[in-house]
Amino acid sequence: MKIPETPKRFDLWIDGAFTPSTSASYMTRQSPAHDCPVTAIAAGTAADVDRAVASALQTFESGVWANTSGAERSAILYAVAERLIERKQELALLETLESGKPLAQADSEVEWAAGIWKHAAALCRHLYGQSCNTLGASTVSMTLREPIGVVGLITPWNFPLLIASQKVPYALAAGCSAVIKPSELTSATTLILAEILKECGLPDGVLNVVTGYGDPVGQALCEHKDIEMISFTGSTTVGKAIAATAACNLKKVCLELGGKNAMIVMDDADLDAVVDAARLGAFFNMGECCNASSRILVHEGIADQFVERLTAFAKELSVCDPLDETSKLGAIINETQEQKILGYIAAGQKDGATICLGGGKVETEKGRYLEATILDHVPADSATATEEVFGPVLSIVRIKTLDEAISIANRTAYGLSAGIFTNDYNQAMKASRALRAGTVWVNTWLEGHPELSFGGYKQSGLGRELGSKAVEEYTEEKTVLFSLGKRQPWW
Ligand code: NAD
């Protein structure tokens, strides 16, 4: 796989075609792994958002998409899944160059995304309302699911294509028109996705992409009076600001936000399984993952053995150029994030944690790489153990009982995911019920399927993506009541 000699340039995607931004300027993205420019992305403006929303609204009101049958929509979504696989190499390379993630992983993310498009394609034909036939002889009622309207979709940089694929196909399955704003750091694959949708038959203007910074582009979407719903994935801080802005016309808001996910390890757990899952959970995507198992609450009876085995196992992870097929940890997205991660490692040490592995930068000629880091004896309520680090840093907290572990696990503002490793089904069920998180894994971690809903409790979000109700999120429910026969007078 080669790095392009000149950065690949992308304009905005409005009304079914690439079109320059009114700013006439471009954001150059440097590869975090290679320190060279890889893409030049149009820096959108509020005026561009107006153009894109106008195009989406025109298609919505015309019914060119909203009035198609589920079968027609399904065929297009399914074709997109197949086209994603055909263009997999190109998509994966762009994701790696913009984000720094290992190419082999980016490759499997394209397949994962294609699977989600197929799931949405199936749901197109299964969007049902209800009927009520128990209102008496002269009344019958039904509910209709209707597309909510024009939706604004805002995505982060850590899984660009995958997260776009958790939103776009379900919005389209519902019959909505949309404007999407990808992260300013990783916009390329969302633009290619729009191009693929056109190739597969989506009418022009139904999906538009306005690239650019959070302010002005994301801000303008949240303020726009013709947008009925915002679906956002990103940090909790920005999510709160978006909810406040979207209140201007009482838009519906769906938020997929940060997490500080606790993996509980009891003393009867299968250590081989735990060590493998902990390594994956903490270091997958360099820990830049909302579902990272960034804190492990391990029973003190097995803690020393666990830490020793995990440390030896994590040492084997190769931190290097993400284009190298042996790479398991690639580059860190940008300098701000790198400094934030190093700050949490230093704070953890200050609070009394000990470093078992890593703790600093990997010195390389090019790029920005951090060592896989394991901190032991991290105080349960310290910043490193309760705040989202979003880097390859695993905090180990030792616990004495399951009750203590559950109490610590729930003592954060977040509630995205959690899990337990044990061979005792009573403990597993008790934890599954008590953990305040949208997903609880038992004897596994990071396993997801499009069939299963995903989202957060508390400050990890509002609403759910994926699962059988993913399309419903993008609909309104209308009640229709029929009065039958001769009308009964008011009095
Ligand atoms: P971020 O919140 O900084 O940015 C996300 C998106 O919001 C970007 O496109 C950004 O340009 C845009 N944005 C920024 N300011 C805005 C504003 N004022 N109005 C509208 N849009 C604005 O997040 P990030 O750094 O890109 O991603 C990392 C975060 O995302 C982490 O906190 C992670 O946990 C979270 N995340 C959550 C999930 C999930 O499904 N729960 C998945 C992936 C990432």
Describe the fold and architecture.
- It is a single chain.
- The chain has 491 residues and is an alpha/beta fold.
- The protein folds into two domains: 8-257 and 460-477, Aldehyde Dehydrogenase, Chain A, domain 1 (3-Layer(aba) Sandwich), CATH 3.40.605; 262-442, Aldehyde Dehydrogenase, Chain A, domain 2, CATH 3.40.309.10.
- It is 37% helix and 21% strand.
- The chain has 14 helices and 23 strands.
- The strands form six sheets. Strands 15-18-19-14-13-20-21 form a seven-stranded mixed beta sheet, with helices on both faces.
- Helix 5 (160-174) links the parallel strand 8 (150-154) and strand 9.
- It is globular and about 80 Å long.
- The protein starts with 7 loop residues before the first strand and ends in an 8-residue tail after the last strand.
- The mean pLDDT is 97.
- It binds nicotinamide-adenine-dinucleotide.
- Nicotinamide-adenine-dinucleotide is lined by residues 154-158, 163, 181, 183-184, 213-215, 218-219, 222, 233-235, 238, 241-242, 256-259, 290, 388, 390, 416, 456, 461.
